Amino acid sequence: MTPYDASSPQGQTATAGPLVDSFGRAVSYLRVSVTDRCDLRCVYCMSEHMSFLPKAQVLTLEELDRIASAFVALGVRKLRITGGEPLVRKGVLGLIEGLGRHLRSGALDEITLTTNGTRLAEFAGPLAEAGVRRINVSLDTLKPELFRALTRGGDLSKVLAGIDAAQAAGLRVKLNAVALAHDNAAELPDLIAWAHGRGLDVTLIETMPMGEVEADRTDQYLSLTALRAELESFWTLRDLPLSTGGPARYVQVAETGGRLGFITPLSHNFCEACNRVRLTCTGTLHTCLGREDAADLRAVIRSGASDEGLVQAIRAAVEAKPQGHDFHIDRASPPAVARHMSTTGG
Ligand code: SAM
Ligand code: SF4
Hints:
CATH superfamily of the domain at 9-15 and 26-174 and 274-344: Aldolase class I
Number of helices: 11
Strand content: 15-25%
Radius of gyration: 20 Å
Bound molecules: S-adenosylmethionine, iron/sulfur cluster
CATH class of the domain at 9-15 and 26-174 and 274-344: Alpha Beta
Number of strands: 12
CATH topology of the domain at 9-15 and 26-174 and 274-344: TIM Barrel
């Protein structure tokens, strides 16, 4: 095979060589949404009556494996399985076990998962056996009634049992909490202290304007800059030099000893070091969370394309990765992107 030469026109289509966009950013991280469905209806993520995709539009497990594996062959080192709720997808464990071959071959560093935790009690052990070492669990409150309201019917005790099971199985768990001005802002210090007491890192996320939901996001939006200032009135936060190529900035809380991340897509731009792309469960590749750019890889593989054809389509999409996004929240404008987070894969 001809060695990849990024400066040659052939280099752009060769199967060898790293995936690099036109701004010189190497893509090493793929997030794969395996379903748009979910057993919860978080108010900031979904509308109350979501219509979900017909099965024929969703990639089969074999198609998901094929596309993810093509990315691994192109130098992606980290896969995150997400959704919707990934653990409601039938056969997801088999998919993860299959992708585990790339861990064993050394082609992949990590397979991780973002989950709402409701089914973790059942899945934690098998996930650990499949080679998963770390997972993110989304949890915005420790109050059962508020949890029920925010998720439109969810049962907090299931998530807590899931976190217990994950820790018992040896998985490292990070909590993701969306910061909501009125609903959980006052409770966040308690949530952080609880998590750190159990050895869990926490990442706080600003609400992002993705997809139509019933709630008014201007009302829900809480700036993490303001929240950080408040936390600093009673805690000592030390900046950590940790960079994941993602939007999170981390601090250590001296009093709890735990790590705290801030994901601030609205108050800060994090695009310069962006190393990630996202595959939806319908096979659409989004190279930027905050823009409408899209490449239809399902059409490519369902038209009978060879592996080389798939690689060409991936390279062309990555080549066109936008320089950055431009999120803003205001009352007058529609969501920055029309698709929901559950479709893109958060
Ligand atoms: N169902 C899984 C879960 O909740 O962890 C995985 C998918 S969910 C879309 C991934 C993450 O996106 C969750 O942490 C969730 O809180 C976050 N999320 C969803 N909608 C969001 C929004 N509009 N703004 C910010 N974060 C959002
Ligand atoms: Fe489901 Fe996750 Fe969206 Fe909540 S944030 S509705 S758990 S996909």
